[in-house]
Specification:
Number of strands: 4
Strand order of the largest sheet: 1-2-3-4
Helix content: 40-55%
Strand content: 15-25%
Radius of gyration: 17 Å
Length: about 180
Amino acid sequence: MASLPQWVRQIARDHGKLWGLAHAAGEGLMDSLQSYDPGQARRHFDLNFHVPLLLAQGFCDRRVFNRGGALLFLASASAIFPEKGHLIYGAAKAALAAAAKSISQEVVSRGLRVHCLSPGIIDTPMEEAMEAFMGSSYREHQLREYPLGFGRPEDVAAMAVFLLSERASWLTGQNYVLAGGRY
């Protein structure tokens, strides 16, 4: 994990300066205060918080990015609107969203933009696993909360492409919630 900044720098040395970097990995976890395990929390914070920051550290090196480029983190609506059962996941994604805001202020003078996307429920294998864990009524209950239905990966991708593009050249430091009208 500690070598991630050097890995990003090596990519730029091998292929030229980068326009953008997006971190979209994450792993959900159903947990509670009663089941809190510091070891499990560290593992989730590594994936959902530390890894994206280490990638950003490498990307924010002036020798790596093109002026006007962008850094994009995928957090979660759980970062802003936490629910029962999302203790560690929501906390890690909230930390990432706060870090994105701080990083944006740190690098804006270098001509680098930083964004955060916080999707609500998206139809993905992660959501299918949640439905299997929570039972058959979970999907029906959640769908009632989303006036426009659950999102699709393409919905998140379209916003990500926009934020990484020059069309978003005047935007930085924001966390965009994509949730089909839920919040």
